[in-house]
Amino acid sequence: MVLEFPVLADYCVIAEGETAVYATHGHIYNEQKLPPLHPGDILLHGHTHVPKCAVHEEESYIYMNPGSVSLPKEDSWHGYMIWEGSEFVWKDFDGQEHMRKKLS
């Protein structure tokens, strides 16, 4: 861990209509160890520093990672993710859009 002190609870739940977004760092809850998700929920974490958006059909959830502004991994860009309404957009520092996911 980079920080030697806790900065958040293990996760927080954000309601977006009928969808729950489980926002977490990713070192405890992640794609291998899921929090209590329901069909259609979103797991959002940044632990790997790799931007990603994947629909896991079998478990019925969406995984999102915003990437990293300071230490991107796996040749990804220095960037961030914006969440506005029902859309998630991944951009680099020049404002170039790299990915977009609209919730239905």
Structure characterization notes:
0% of the residues lie in helices and 42% in strands. By secondary structure, it is mainly β. The chain has one domain: 4-Layer Sandwich (Purple Acid Phosphatase, chain A, domain 2), CATH 3.60.21. The strands form two sheets. Strands 1-2-3-5-4 form a five-stranded mixed β-sheet, with no helix packed on it. The radius of gyration is 14 Å and the shape is globular.
Summarize the structure.
By secondary structure, this protein is mainly beta. Helix content is 0%, strand content 42%. The chain contains no helices and 8 strands.
Layout: helices, strands, pairs:
Blueprint: E1 12-16, E2 19-24, E3 41-45, E4 52-56, E5 61-65, E6 79-84, E7 87-92, E8 97-102
Parallel strand pairs: 2-3, 3-5
Antiparallel strand pairs: 1-2, 4-5, 6-7, 7-8
Number of domains: 1
CATH homologous superfamily title? Metallo-dependent phosphatases
CATH architecture: 4-Layer Sandwich
The total strand number stands at 8
| Major β-sheet profile | 5 strands, mixed
CATH C-level category: Alpha Beta
Helix- and strand-based class? mainly beta
If you average the pLDDT, what whole number results? 91
Task: Report the radius of gyration as a whole number of Å.
Answer: 14 Å
Q: Quick one: overall form?
A: globular
Helix-strand topology string: EEEEEEEE
Low-confidence stretches: none
- CATH topology (level 3) name: Purple Acid Phosphatase, chain A, domain 2
Tally of contiguous helical segments: 0
- The percentage of residues in β strands lies in 35-45%
Distance between the termini: 36 Å
Helical content stands at under 10%
The main sheet orders its strands as 1-2-3-5-4
